[in-house]
Amino acid sequence: MYITFHGAARHVTGSKHLIHLNNDTQILLDCGMFQGMQNADDLNGHFGFVPEKVDYMVLSHAHIDHCGLIPRLVAEGFKGPIFCTPPTMHLARILLADSARIQESDAEFDNRHRHGGDETPPLYTEEDAMNALHQFKVVEYGEDFDISPDIKLRFTDAGHLLGSAAVHLSINEDGKTTNITFSGDVGRYGDMILRSPAKFEQADYILLESTYGDSLHKDLKPIENALHDVIQHTCMVRHGKVIIPAFSVGRTQELLYALNALELDGRLPDVPYYVDSPLADEATQVLKEHPEVYNNEVKKVMQTDADPFDFKGLHFIKSTQESIALNDDPRPCVIISASGMAEAGRVRHHIKNNIGQEKNTILIVGYCEPSSLGGHLLNGDKVVRIFHEEVDVKADVRSIKSMSAHGDYEDLLKFVSCQDPAKVKQLFLVHGEYPVQQHFADKLKKAGFENIEIPYQHQKIELE
């Protein structure tokens, strides 16, 4: 048995890890899109393995960097089942359709501005996304599910996103059982909305995410204060706009919950709040349909507030015309729009239209790959490239670093604290930048995990 690592290997995005059994059975863990990287198009165009030879796929959660290439995988010949939790299937349905529309729109834009040469097709179409959904199969948290007579699957709550799961495979091969755990993305203990990550049974091999393996997030409580301060200063004092790039699923709902808390506390600045993402509207409705994932704090709030994601002044933007109209409205407001790294979607238009005025603020509320637009803004670049144009950065650029759905290194260490390190034959660090992973590897060794590997792209590693 061996594993090959075809994404999120010394990088944060593009999660794809392929388990090869001795009988030629292949199990793919996630099939994510590379995002925010300069060579993302090339990486997304070549899997590094043959899709039609893959027998099964297991999806940890519905973020695009974990599921975004599933339609292309199916279009290139994968015919097997795709296992996930019920909420993940619900979210993937809307996320993949939205991603397909973005692929088609971006391809159309590029081809329209192309000077000669062959046209570039989209990575996949909305029809491809819909076709792929027919292969999804749901498995409940905590259920021991037989993928085949020799392969058992169990999902445990990862606390990262609605439906997110750590993947546990028990593989019987040549009379020997091997237990492999893939963390997916690990959430925070004490998350704003979701339950904390669950404990899991002893594993022989662990694939562990490491996005924030060198960071400690600040306490969650000041998030509301930080939002208040930015909005108050920008909108009420400088009469400007606050533009918040935020992923439609997860981060946007956290922002709405925090803003609702400000209203309950009587501190919400009296300006319009726009969520300019039809996908975010759908995702918010999905979250409302799954109150079983809420933590005790949210359930307590709901005893007096039936909808903790709604408040005075909140508007969901539906049409493109409504979105464009926001740029012509001079009034102070807050605009929350996807994507979180500012790499695609309507938020790029809002940034371009507001970045040239000092009275405005661009507020980054999550991880941004360094070469993404959000990454350049966080880096303090004075000139950025948006829609093939160089744009001067005059707006204030702020960040709330504690707003992360990813656990910090203390959360990650707590996640694996249920394991006996001496029984873990090898721990693979994935889903992180290499310097961060090296830092985190040292912390894991101090916690007793001796055999730590940081795989590189397409690396093959034999398991005992």
TrEMBL record:
Residues 13-239 form the Metallo-beta-lactamase domain. Pfam families: Beta-Casp (PF10996), Lactamase_B_6 (PF16661), RMMBL (PF07521). The keyword Thylakoid does not apply. Residues 252-377 form the Beta-Casp domain. Signal peptide: none annotated. GO terms for molecular function: hydrolase activity; RNA endonuclease activity. Keywords: Hydrolase. The keyword Hydrolase applies. InterPro entries: Beta_Casp, MBL, Metallo-B-lactamas, RibonucZ/Hydroxyglut_hydro, RMMBL. It comes from the Bacteria. This is MBL fold metallo-hydrolase. It comes from Mucilaginibacter ginkgonis. The lineage of its organism: Bacteria, Pseudomonadati, Bacteroidota, Sphingobacteriia, Sphingobacteriales.
